[in-house]
């Protein structure tokens, strides 16, 4: 029984690390540009985020502060949610 505990612990710890890395990240920033035709929002720091296909625009405008919830898929920052941040 003890012979299986160490390998099982190693496998679980490796799996937990990959799950933690896949967790969504939230970034706050100011909208530099917004293109609803290509479903792209770019923040003032130059990072572009791909919006989901069914994204409902809550009235976003250039210069507005937003919070973007995203995950890195390959080299693309895929946003799952964008909300306005009140100052």
TrEMBL record:
<dbReference type="InterPro" id="IPR009780">
    <property type="entry name" value="DUF1344"/>
</dbReference>
<dbReference type="Pfam" id="PF07076">
    <property type="entry name" value="DUF1344"/>
</dbReference>
<feature type="signal peptide">
    <location>
        <begin position="1"/>
        <end position="22"/>
    </location>
</feature>
<keyword id="KW-0732">Signal</keyword>
<protein>
    <submittedName>
        <fullName>DUF1344 domain-containing protein</fullName>
    </submittedName>
</protein>
């Amino acid at each position: 029984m003890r012979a299986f505990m160490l390998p099982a612990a190693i496998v679980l710890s490796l799996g937990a690390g990959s799950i933690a890395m896949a967790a969504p990240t939230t970034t706050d920033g100011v909208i530099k540009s917004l293109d609803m035709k290509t479903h792209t929002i770019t923040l003032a720091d130059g990072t572009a985020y791909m919006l989901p296909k069914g994204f409902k625009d809550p009235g976003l405008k250039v210069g507005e502060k937003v919070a973007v919830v995203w995950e890195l898929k390959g080299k693309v920052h895929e946003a799952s949610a964008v909300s306005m941040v009140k100052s």
